[in-house]
Design brief:
8-stranded mixed β-sheet; alpha+beta; 11 helices; about 375 residues
């Protein structure tokens, strides 16, 4: 079993509420009842912004004779990190004759893909509007437009994540649970998700119960905003599991916990909203530093961010050279999170609850 990793200490200052340090940022534990905070947060997730509609409206703000970059549009939505999704939307949106998407170019001025035709078609439309195009490029220093009018929805969601991170607790039971749940979401189409839950015995990793639900998905995949895509369907799944009396004492979530730019990965979201202890397990390191060179099978190493160890990299098997990354989501210590994941690694790269949840969601999605 891998070694435990030091977690941030809880501090109490005279005359002030309790402070939980996550990274270098103090996070205040709110004084209102947990049920009130959870209900309010869940209500927010039920009404996520329609980014496709908002982005299409930004296209129409680009005047003839100008171009805008994917980065500028992402910035208008509230975070430049959405530039990749903007590029994806350009290639996959519902296009009409009056759609001005031909005015969107790459950061270096290259025309980029055009949903309605070739680069020649895109260049011809831009030239008709007075934009000079040479070698499939536009001089963005001359023609760039970035004066968008927008309420910056991603910036609002970022602030919501920061509020949620302030409710995360990094303490939990000292004894490991007998049963552990796992949740994962797969996508048979870009607009539909299948969420799966599995209930697994900690000793031996035997899956004893499972269920799935299928729902429409409206929020796109944007790095660091995964929770807004998957929390709505996961909340419905957890509600169904609770109704069956099958909710485990601890949940493994396919995604990050506090090992996240804002210490608010999907496992943290799900834990705070449902009040359930959660652990995030992911194949991708969003933030932090760890030396994975020469890791032995079964070995774990701490992941540091802003001077704190907030996660662990674990090489699951001899066949998987790349590690998985584990971090607490809510109401669990990092040492416990790491210990539980180690015990549930049964010769596969993923711990058993997530392995079976992944398989089950994919199988259900093919039906």
């Amino acid at each position: 079993m891998g070694r435990g990793v030091t977690v941030p200490d809880r501090l109490t200052q005279p005359g002030r509420r309790e402070i939980f340090l996550v990274g270098r940022n103090p996070a205040y534990r709110k004084s209102e009842p947990a049920a009130t905070a959870d209900a309010a947060m869940g209500h927010v997730f039920a009404k996520t912004p329609d980014l496709e509609v908002l982005l299409a409206s930004l296209f129409r703000q680009i005047p003839p004779g100008c171009v805008a970059t994917c980065g500028a549009l992402a910035g208008a939505l509230g975070n430049p990190i959405a530039a990749r999704w903007v590029g994806h939307f350009l290639r996959n949106h519902e296009h009409g004759e009056d759609c001005p998407c031909h005015r969107v170019v790459r950061a270096d001025g290259h025309l980029g893909a055009y949903i309605a035709g070739s680069l020649h078609d895109k260049a011809r439309r831009l030239r008709r509007e007075g934009v000079k195009v040479g070698r499939d490029r536009v001089d963005v220093t001359v023609y760039a437009f970035d004066r968008f009018v927008s309420d910056r929805p991603l910036d609002k969601l970022r602030r919501l994540q920061e509020e949620l991170a302030a409710q995360v607790r990094l303490r939990g039971p000292r004894k490991p649970p007998k049963l552990v749940g796992g949740v994962d979401v797969s996508y048979p189409t870009t607009k539909e998700g299948v969420a799966a839950y599995t209930l697994v015995e900690l000793d031996g990793g035997r899956c004893i119960w499972s269920t799935t639900i299928r729902r429409p998905i409206t929020f796109p995949y944007i790095t660091t905003y995964l929770a807004f895509r998957e929390i709505p369907i996961l909340l419905e799944l957890i509600e169904a599991v609770r109704a069956e009396g099958r909710l485990a004492e601890l949940l493994l979530v396919d995604g990050s916990g506090i090992l996240h730019h804002r210490h608010a990965g999907i496992a943290a979201h799900l834990g705070v909203i449902t009040g359930t202890p959660t652990v995030g397990v992911t194949k991708t390191l969003l933030v932090g530093k760890v030396d994975i060179e020469g890791m032995a099978p079964g070995e774990s190493r701490p992941v540091y961010h802003q001077g704190q160890a907030i996660g662990a990299a674990i090489r699951a098997t001899s066949k998987s050279r790349r590690p998985i990354f584990v971090s607490p989501g809510h109401r669990v210590t990092l040492a416990m999170a790491e210990s539980v994941v180690h015990r549930l690694l049964q010769g596969r790269r993923l711990p058993e609850p997530l392995y079976w949840a992944d398989r089950l969601s994919r199988a259900e999605g093919h039906k």
